């Protein structure tokens, strides 16, 4: 039977329709956990990429644990992004709690767009952000819009993201939060650890916390979230390209051949793999490199460098060999892309490298020719590049040191920062927490430590909270080092939904706390009788007697505490170590 010929226009239309359906199908990534929160907003914020962010108040179950202040731009410009028109401001340590249905790696995004209102100039905010005990930001502030992206492996059914002002005169803010399950193949467990004298395997990569610093489309234009299945932005490499000897931009209009168990569209989209920068192999005089990109980074961290390859330039298989260098160290010799992709052209492949940046404040990635290559072949190629910071041994992604009291005392004084009543369960939790693993380079583990908390509480004696703890307590350690480590781990931590302030005990801090935390005591004791005030003073005197006895026993220093100012960021030499007062009403 004779076949019927489809008219040209109809065939073209069907092809375009098929391509559109295929693209839309590929873009339908449905994460099990997908929390999109517009902080401080009163209605949903609809984005151009099709996603809708819900306001952070009124959700069921609620995600906002401390309401803070809701602020908005009074006259936003028509082109202002929906997520940039509102913000949630916190003058006291506060947090969001998200339900996690599927454990594993999750992507966290924090949106910061500083704007000004009569009450707040968001560009003056300074604060810390933690997620699952990982320090994401320390003494953070920004005067321009920024989005921070992280990947964290979650093993529990909830995620708590905490915001804490850096000092009592500052505040925290956030415009939007995203918490999304990451695809299973996005972060694998192993990578190539590049050292000056050798290349070994790095294991446990999927268990680390990562911060995305750069996501670059090599040789191609900017890729917007609308064209990425994970709503990512890939910027052009022009800004970072430093050495480019005889390189050229290569584009490809054919079909990218994704392989089973290989790189997927969730790893990187077609728009990254169908462009590349290639070189014929000519090197810069005095080096082995044909192409080099440089990126500013912070020293003292390891970095995950993911390089995306797709051979869209070779005329035949097995005609592409080259070397890869990270910070001048050989990372991959004689890389054979045809062999890596199972003898397929136009098939994506990526390699994860881990490199330690100890001193340099930049990270360089270079491509150079291999001795196995033929001068008539393409002798180097790169399609895409991602750089992520790996958390340090103390569980931090921000290198700024916390404020530390220089004192010889080995006793800690801890309080609830917003003046709420403290249950004895919180103290028990604190005592149990001394078994927390010290994530130092020696990988030593804490053992159970002797503590003394008896008769070291201040209790409410009058008012509605009579008989309840006022939130003050002492815990004594046998060694100064143990007290300092407990302070660093527990300060700002939420216990039973309440943030803690943990400090070394001193006369000065007691005076500060009596004045700074009057938000709780003043309400209970205003217009009260003199005997109640005398009872309160007696309790304070009892604690001071306790401190004096410790001094006489050699357990507490007699000198006044002082701040180690070299541990503070520039411009922050006078941070108070006492708590905060919430102003959300």
UniProtKB/TrEMBL annotation:
Q: Which organism is it from?
A: Musa troglodytarum
The major lineage groups are: Eukaryota, Viridiplantae, Streptophyta, Embryophyta, Tracheophyta
**Locations listed in the record:** Membrane
Signal peptide region: 1-26
Q: Which GO terms describe its molecular function?
A: ATP binding; RNA binding; transmembrane receptor protein tyrosine kinase activity
Q: Supply the name of the protein.
A: RRM domain-containing protein
**Does this entry carry the keyword Translocase?**
no
Q: Where are the transmembrane segments?
A: 412-434
Cite the RRM domain residue spans from the record.
451-507
Topological type in the membrane? Single-pass type I membrane protein
**Sequence ranges of Basic and acidic residues compositional bias:** 572-585
**Chain positions covered by the region annotation Disordered:** 551-585
A GO cellular component term found in this entry reads: membrane
């Amino acid at each position: 039977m004779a076949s019927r010929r489809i008219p040209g226009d109809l065939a073209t239309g069907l092809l375009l329709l098929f391509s559109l359906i295929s693209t839309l199908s590929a873009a339908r990534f449905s994460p099990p956990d997908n929390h999109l929160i517009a902080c401080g907003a009163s209605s949903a914020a609809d984005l151009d990429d099709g996603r809708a962010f819900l306001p952070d108040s009124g959700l069921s179950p609620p995600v906002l644990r401390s309401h803070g202040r809701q602020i908005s731009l009074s006259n936003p410009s028509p082109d202002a992004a929906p997520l940039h028109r509102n913000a949630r401001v916190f003058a006291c340590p506060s947090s969001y709690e998200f339900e996690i249905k599927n454990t594993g790696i999750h992507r966290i995004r924090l949106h910061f767009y500083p704007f000004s209102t009569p009450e707040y100039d968001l560009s003056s905010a300074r604060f810390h952000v933690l997620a699952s005990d990982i320090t994401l930001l320390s003494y953070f502030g920004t005067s321009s819009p920024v989005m921070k992206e992280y990947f964290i492996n979650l093993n529990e059914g909830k995620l708590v993201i905490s915001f804490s002002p850096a000092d009592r005169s500052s505040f925290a803010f956030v415009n939007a939060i995203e918490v999304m399950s990451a695809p299973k193949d996005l972060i694998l467990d192993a990578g190539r650890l590049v050292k000056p004298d050798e290349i070994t395997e790095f294991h446990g990569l999927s268990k680390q916390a990562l911060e995305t610093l750069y996501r670059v489309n090599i040789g191609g234009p900017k890729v917007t979230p609308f064209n990425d299945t994970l709503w990512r932005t890939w910027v052009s490499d022009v800004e970072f390209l430093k050495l480019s000897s005889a390189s050229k931009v290569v584009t490809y209009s054919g079909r990218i051949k994704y392989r089973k168990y290989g790189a997927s569209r969730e790893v990187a989209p077609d728009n990254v793999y169908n462009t590349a920068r290639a070189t014929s192999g000519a090197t810069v005089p005095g080096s082995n490199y044909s192409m080099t990109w440089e990126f500013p980074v912070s020293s003292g961290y390891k970095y995950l460098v993911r390089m995306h390859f797709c051979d869209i330039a070779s005329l035949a298989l097995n005609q592409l060999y080259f070397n890869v260098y990270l910070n001048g160290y050989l990372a991959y010799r004689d890389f054979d892309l045809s062999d890596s992709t199972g003898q397929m052209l136009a098939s994506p492949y990526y390699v994860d490298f881990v490199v330690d940046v100890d001193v340099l404040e930049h990270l360089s990635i270079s491509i150079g020719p291999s001795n196995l290559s033929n001068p008539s072949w393409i002798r180097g190629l790169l399609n895409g590049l991602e750089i992520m910071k790996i958390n340090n041994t103390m569980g931090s992604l921000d290198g700024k040191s916390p404020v530390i009291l220089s004192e010889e005392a080995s006793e800690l004084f801890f309080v609830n920062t917003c003046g709420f009543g403290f249950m004895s369960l919180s103290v028990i939790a604190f005592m149990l927490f001394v078994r927390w693993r010290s994530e130092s380079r020696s990988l030593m583990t804490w053992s159970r430590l002797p503590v003394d908390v008896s008769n070291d509480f201040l209790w409410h004696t009058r008012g509605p909270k009579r008989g309840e703890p006022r939130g003050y307590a002492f815990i004594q350690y046998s060694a100064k080092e143990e007290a300092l480590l407990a302070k660093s781990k527990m300060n700002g931590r939420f216990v039973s939904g309440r943030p803690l302030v943990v400090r070394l005990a001193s006369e000065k801090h007691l005076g500060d706390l009596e004045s700074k935390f009057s938000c709780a005591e003043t309400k209970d004791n205003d217009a009260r009788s003199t005997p109640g005030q005398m009872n309160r003073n007696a309790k304070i005197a009892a604690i001071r007697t306790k401190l004096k006895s410790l001094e006489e026993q050699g357990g507490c220093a007699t000198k006044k505490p002082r701040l180690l100012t070299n541990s503070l960021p520039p411009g922050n030499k006078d941070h108070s170590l006492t708590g905060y007062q919430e102003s959300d009403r």
